[in-house]
Write a structure and sequence with these properties.
700 residues; alpha+beta; 3 domains; six-stranded mixed beta barrel; six-stranded mixed sheet; 21 strands; 43% helix
């Protein structure tokens, strides 16, 4: 009986909506936009925040970092990691990971690939099962043994044509031969965005890794034992850290350990933004509900006589409310179905435009949880916008309604008051959204007004990774990159070219503790931190950083000459407020004053990490590249015109083709070099504009 009356309600609702196509279209479209937006954003929240990590028992996975008074958060020193691994009694597995770039040669053109350097224990902690082959053993995760690698699924497909016999073959990574042990599963992505895996232990004998005072970008990943809680693990690691503090006061003074669940750490930087966005689209849905409720109230004015006649013929109020709510649910479900289609397009757009900093983007999809959420909000919204109109419409004054004069009587006044309340609610919700949008716009405008400290106009950069096997010594690396910048600098359209270990607005961070010679030493673990950048003599001009006082680096600032340093004006004002810093010395890595660099120049402070810089309290130090000579640098080029026109030229240059691809490309770049004044003023700063298909390996 119940199913029969429900079917009658559905048939009646379909006929009723068919008679009012304009109302039906407007109501369904409003709900489609509201429900579709909520479903799309919830799919992101679901994938990033709610869905467990794609590993076995992910709640047992944690990440560990070091901290002290100078560095609230820092990477792990390799010797400390070894001690943690030997002394803890709370972890099943404990390992380290980081990323590193390699030049992959053979099987096509040379390319730069990003490798995840992971301990064998990390793969065991994640309980990884490769699609083919096997993972590293502990013996292979050591220095001075045969080099091995596991290919990522994407690299195996694109570079090796999905070769089913790839296991056991060798590849060349930065002049070293690596034996392929296996291929990861299709959905494997750890560390994020890496294309292959190599054992972290192969670097365990390097000078930079065995120094307890150095933190070479390592993060610890561990799996808790089944019976151990996070609090127990924290207590155990605090005890170990205190013991290491006593044993190594020079490097571990005040050093402690931070433990965070892996999921919490992964989404830490994006959680608040996603929840705010979900709240915003929730307001949009509420506005849509108020709008549809208002439409239903307006529509009910024309159905009063129909409702009154049905009551007079014996229909109960419950029966009428059920009919009206059925119609409301029909509208919301129609909007939900169309909203899912809209959400699917929205998810595709979100995954396409999301920056690399957003974690787990590849996992965003319309899964069963999103579908259930969508139909859940369909049901809730159907009741939300349908209940009040149904209650109002199902209780008419029969005497007044059945009279011709009753159309404008007390019942009409009640409906008018309720509609006015709905309008007020819509306006209030809209004002809240507009205020929020206004605040976002104001924040964006304020960011645009921030002086970044450098000139981003007509600048492009590309990363460079030199193989240490081919360029093992600093003079070799310096000579190669010196020759490269000289060749780039004479290209048509190039105004200046320089080198730096990091570029503004990049995620790459290098900090160092320091002190200045005229102040009393605060002691181990209490030194302040500075952002450190290696730079060549042309970097400041290339990126547009102003030299305020003193001199720039020159070709003589190498190991055969005194150690020098350039500081930013924030450094100068903080530590020499009433004195001239030029000629003063800064303590960096050595306790011997003879090894302290001398300040030769002061540049303006720049936004190094972001325009809204959370690290603005850190001062900035620049060291001469010709003395330190790192193997991973950034080539920064300032163009006379649009730097996009230089990309073809740079690709050919870095690919060992010392000529233009075509006469047409040459003509375009030549024209750009002569019409700078007519070019539109556009910010072309691209901190991650790498040229992956033209790696530095191919240069002589």
């Amino acid at each position: 009986m119940a199913m029969g009356t429900l079917w009658q309600d559905l048939q009646f609702g379909i006929r009723s909506f068919a008679k009012n196509p304009g109302f039906t279209t407007v109501a369904v479209l409003a709900l489609t936009l509201g429900i579709g937006a909520n479903s799309a954003i919830f799919s992101v929240v679901n994938a990033v925040l709610l869905r467990p990590l794609p590993y076995e028992q992910p709640d047992k996975l944690v990440q560990l970092r070091e901290r002290n008074a100078s560095y609230p958060e820092m990477n792990v020193a390799y010797p400390n990691y070894l001690d943690w691994r030997e002394q803890n009694n709370v972890f099943e597995e404990l390992g380290v990971f980081r990323t590193n770039d390699y030049n992959l040669v053979g099987s096509g053109e040379p390319v730069v690939v990003t490798a995840g350097m992971v301990s064998a224990s990390v793969l065991r902690a994640l309980r990884i099962k490769p699609m083919m082959g096997r993972i590293f053993t502990e013996e292979e995760d050591k220095p001075k043994v045969g080099l091995v690698t596991i290919l990522g699924y994407g690299l195996w497909q694109s570079r090796f044509g999905s070769d089913p016999n790839i296991v056991g073959k060798t590849i060349r990574l930065s002049d070293n031969s690596f034996t392929i042990l296996g291929v990861t599963a299709k959905d494997y992505d750890f560390p994020s965005k890496t294309q292959l895996l190599v054992p972290a232990g192969i670097k365990g004998a390097d000078g930079g890794w065995i120094s307890r005072g150095n933190h070479p970008g390592l993060i610890c990943l561990a799996r808790l034992k089944p019976e151990v809680t996070l609090e127990q693990a924290q207590a155990n690691m605090d005890s170990i850290a205190i013991n290491l503090d006593k044993l190594y006061p020079g490097t571990n003074s005040g050093s402690r350990v931070t433990i965070e669940p892996m999921l919490q750490r992964t989404v830490k930087d994006i959680r608040q933004a996603l929840l705010v966005l979900l709240g915003a689209v929730g307001f949009v849905l509420l506005i849509a509900c108020a709008n549809v409720a208002n439409l239903l109230l307006a529509r009910s004015a024309g159905r009063q006589r129909e409702i009154a006649i049905r009551i007079a013929l014996g229909a109960s109020r419950f029966r009428l409310v059920r009919q009206l709510l059925t119609e409301s649910l029909m509208l919301s479900i129609s909007g939900g179905v169309l909203g899912l289609i809209l959400a699917r397009w929205g998810v595709q757009l979100i995954t396409r435009i999301s920056p690399a900093s957003v974690p787990r983007v590849s996992e965003i999809s319309l899964d069963s949880r999103v579908v259930l959420f969508t139909f859940g909000i369909c049901f809730v919204t159907g009741l939300l916008f349908g209940l009040a109109p149904a209650l109002q419409c199902s209780n008419p004054d029969l005497n007044e309604t059945l009279k011709e004069s009753g159309r404008g009587s007390t019942a009409g006044l009640r409906r008018q008051k309720f509609r006015s309340a709905m309008v007020v609610s819509e306006v209030a919700l809209s004002v809240v959204l507009l205020i929020g949008a206004g605040l976002f716009i104001r924040s964006f405008y304020n960011l645009l007004q921030v002086d970044p400290g450098f000139n981003p106009q007509y600048v492009v950069s590309t990363s460079i990774a030199l193989p240490l096997v081919r360029y093992p010594k600093t003079p070799d690396r310096v000579a190669f990159l010196h020759q490269l910048t000289d060749r780039v600098r004479v290209l048509p359209g190039v105004k200046q070219a320089g080198l730096a270990s990091r570029v503004p607005l990049d995620d790459n961070q290098w900090q160092s503790s320091f002190w200045v010679e005229h102040l009393p030493d605060p002691g181990p673990g209490k030194h302040p931190a500075a952002d450190v950048t290696l730079a060549d003599p042309n970097y400041f001009q290339a990126v547009g950083i102003r030299l305020l006082k003193g001199r720039d680096f020159n070709d003589q600032d190498d190991y055969d000459h005194p150690f020098v340093v350039i500081i930013d004006d924030a450094f100068a004002k903080k530590y020499w407020p009433n004195d001239d810093p030029i000629g003063k010395r800064v303590q960096l890595w050595s306790d011997d004053p003879k090894d302290w660099p001398t300040v030769i120049g002061i540049v303006n402070t720049i936004s190094l990490n972001s325009l809204d810089d959370h690290f603005a309290h850190r001062v900035q130090i620049y060291l001469p590249y010709y003395r330190v000579g790192d193997s991973s640098m950034n080539l920064v080029v300032r163009a006379n015109g649009d730097p996009e026109l230089l990309r073809v030229l740079l690709e050919n240059l870095l690919g060992n083709a010392w000529k233009f691809t075509s006469k047409r490309d040459a003509a375009r770049i030549e024209r750009a070099a002569t019409r700078e004044q007519r070019m539109p003023r556009r910010s072309m700063w691209r901190p991650s504009a790498t040229l992956p298909e033209r790696p530095m390996m191919s240069l002589p």
